[in-house]
Write a structure and sequence with these properties.
The chain is an alpha/beta fold. The protein has 2 domains: 202 residues, Alpha-Beta Complex (2-enoyl-CoA Hydratase, Chain A, domain 1); 240 residues, 3-Layer(aba) Sandwich (Rossmann fold), CATH 3.40.50.11440. Helix content is 32%, strand content 19%. The protein has a 6-stranded parallel sheet. A 6-stranded mixed sheet has the order 6-5-4-9-12-13, sandwiched between helices. A two-stranded antiparallel sheet has the order 1-2. It is globular and about 75 Å long.
Length: 495
């Protein structure tokens, strides 16, 4: 399908890749305007260099302190837990010889930038401590908490954990549909019958590891989420991601109290019996900002408090246009929903969200179920889509929750107000995805550019077109840029 003609575009003069400052003076008001200024947007192979209005608000996270010696910070966390006993005390209380104990450590997959190895790595010190306490190497298993994600590849395991760990320890990938490797642990207070990874549940010592960051459904990741949805069966994951939970207004970034997703995950992890939790917090440069170890609930509370100290950004008045990006986690369209829903507190009703989407995954959209469900969202609209999920005849489908999240975005800004600039997705595929395609703003000659320059032109022209369209009807639009993308948490201060 050919791109739609857009007469609002500013055609570049001089540089082929960058609009000239002389052209960047949109708006009908009389008199000269200051030239637009350049910003940089995180993008693999980039950054993207884009011009924004001179009064564009930058909704940036506060500077977070980082430890001078990350490795020492990791060791200190193990030595002095936030709450609860040390690993040594936990091992001693098991009532078995350490050499007879079997340990299971749940770890994250490649979609999460958890520092398992390297100078700020949390895994090698943990394994070393278990060996020091007398556990046998062959009795320690790493279990990748995939949830409904695909299994990790051997190459991904090497990147995540290092070749030394991969060659020395057994590493399993959880499979939520493999009944033989699941065990029933009863029902939660909400009535959910839970089946969990058998290898993890049967272990004498259960350790959960991961990254705590804001999460648009569960409030925050890490801790209990390493078990639910990481290690549970598909039916439990279905409940965790059901409209009953997701349509609750408390299922939102950095909200734990009353959040049904958080409460369900916590109940499951408690029933499974997590002995020890390790989580980290990080800044936009993926530098360690905190390491927290010990009892699960206390660790999560400490990590969330740390995130709030620098990630929460107060927004007094919503903006007309918000520019954001998918960040590290936005490897595909499925994951980029985090950036879109995270921007909602910053944008007005019927405003515009422009997303620079770095969908570098081998499958830049997501799995086949997700693609089909996105098409249904496109056809039915957000309310029709949720009605469909709630229908008694609907059969729960893997990934159905992420289009539901995109529906929250569409309710706020509408199809015209969501502009998705992802050069790794084909132009034809956009016909089945929510919102507008960045290709609508790409001149034909620019389609021969590399992916970085193509994304740059999509974003730039989408911003200029949106700005001019709004400016034509009155005052200059209020524009905001979220430099940290999905990791920042705009928080509305409106009553």
């Amino acid at each position: 399908m050919a791109a739609k003609k857009n007469n609002n575009l500013v055609r570049p003069k001089g540089s082929r890749d960058e609009p000239s400052r002389r052209n960047l003076t949109p708006g009908p008001s009389p008199g000269p305007r200051p030239p637009w200024r350049k910003i940089e947007i995180e993008f693999s192979g980039g950054p993207l260099r884009v011009f924004v209005p001179p009064d564009c608000a930058v909704l940036a996270m506060a500077g977070a302190e980082v430890p001078d010696d990350p490795a020492a910070a990791v060791r200190a966390a193990y030595a002095l837990p936030v709450a609860g006993p040390k690993l040594e005390e936990i091992v001693r209380a098991k009532g078995k010889s350490p050499a007879a104990l079997r340990a299971a450590i749940t770890v994250s997959d490649i979609t999460r930038p958890v520092p398992y190895q390297g100078p700020q790595g949390i895994l090698a010190p943990l394994l070393a401590e278990l060996l020091r306490l007398g556990l046998r190497r062959e009795h320690i298993r790493l279990i990748v908490g995939t949830g409904t994600h695909r299994a990790s590849t051997p190459a991904e395991k090497n990147v995540l954990f290092g070749r030394g760990v991969v060659s020395a320890y057994e590493i399993l990938d959880h499979d939520c549909a493999d009944a033989a490797n699941l065990v029933s642990i009863g029902r939660t207070a909400g009535g959910t019958e839970v089946r969990v990874n058998r290898a993890f549940f049967k272990a004498d010592l259960k350790i959960a590891t991961g990254l705590t960051e804001s999460h648009f459904m569960a409030g925050a990741s890490g801790g209990r989420k390493a078990v639910c949805p990481g290690l549970v069966d598909l039916r439990t994951i279905q409940k965790f991601h059901s409209p009953e939970f997701l349509e609750n207004p408390l299922a939102a970034n950095l909200v734990l109290d009353g959040n049904p997703c958080h409460e369900e995950a916590r109940a499951v992890a408690r029933a499974v019996g997590v002995d020890f939790t390790v989580t980290v917090t990080m800044d936009r440069a993926l530098r360690l900002t905190g390491v927290f170890a010990g009892e699960m609930d206390a660790v999560l509370a400490a990590a969330v408090a740390r995130i709030k100290s620098y990630a929460a950004i107060p927004v007094e008045k919503p903006f007309d246009i918000v520019l954001t990006h998918g960040g590290y986690v936005g490897r595909n369209h499925y994951q980029t929903a985090k950036a879109a829903v995270g921007a909602l507190p910053a944008v007005r009703e019927k405003g515009t969200i422009i997303i620079a989407a770095d969908n570098r995954d081998a499958e830049p959209i997501g799995g086949p179920e997700y693609k089909t469900l996105c098409h249904l969202l496109k056809l039915q609209g957000p309310d029709g889509y949720v009605d469909m999920l709630r229908a008694p005849s609907w059969r729960f489908t893997r990934d159905q929750w992420e289009p539901e999240v995109w529906g929250k975005v569409l309710r706020r800004v509408g199809e015209e107000g969501l502009i998705y600039c992802g050069p790794d997705i084909s132009e034809e595929a956009y016909e089945r995805l929510p919102g507008r395609s960045g290709y609508e703003f790409l001149p034909p000659a620019a389609r021969r550019l590399g992916r970085v320059r193509k994304a740059e032109r999509m974003v730039q022209n989408a911003l200029i077109a949106s700005y001019r369209s709004l400016a034509a009807s009155g005052d200059a639009p209020r524009v905001a840029f979220i430099p940290e993308g999905p990791y920042a948490v705009p928080v509305s201060t409106r009553e």
